[in-house]
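Fold it.
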Amino acid sequence: MEALTGLSYRPKVIVSASAIGYYGNRGDQWLTEQSAAGAGFLPLLCQEWERTTEIASNAGVRVVNIRTGLVLTSAGGTLKAMLPAFRLGLGGRLGNGRQYMSWIDLDDHIAAIQFVLENETLRGPVNLVAPNPVTNREFTKSLATILHRPAIFPVPGFLLHLLPGGMAKNTLLASQRVEPAKLLKAGFEFAYPELASSLAHCLPSKQ
C-alpha cells in the first residue's frame, strides 16, 4: 500500500481481497457490510488486513475490500475437495448441519470483481456472496441431489473439534449468513443467485 500510494501516478482503485471470516461465527444472524467484526483469529486477521488499506484510502485512492465467501467451482477449493466422498455416496452434513454457508459461483465472483472495479460509487467493504446463503444441511442435500447420490454419513461435531488449532470451530462449523447488500443496492445482477443453479453450472451431467 505504501509503494502504490507513493507512485507518481497512483491507481484509481485498489481491490483488496478479504473474507467473510471478518464476521466470525454468528449463527442465523443476517450480516451486511455494516455488521461488526466477530471474535477470534480469523476476524482479527481480516480486520488487520483491511486496516492496512487505510494507507491508500487516506491518500485519496478508492479502495474496495471484497469480503469473499465460499467460491463454488469444480476446478478447486472446497467443492472440489468434497466431490470424491459425495460421488461415492459417502457425503454428509458437518456437525448438526445448522451452520450457514455463504457461497458464490466463480463466474459471479469474477463478474462482481469487475463490477466493483468499474463502479466508482463502491468503496470500503463489499460482500462477495450470493444473495441466498444456505445451511450446511441444505448444501449437503443439494450437492447429493445434483450428483444423484445419497448423503447419509454425517461427520460428528466432536470429531471435527479434534482438528488442530480450533480449525473446525473457525471454519467448518462457523455460521455466517451474509447478505451482498452493497452489490445489490448498486445494481449487480447475479447469474447464479440460487445454490441449485450454481451447482448445476459447476457440475454438468457429463462430470
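The two ends are 42 Å apart (CA to CA).
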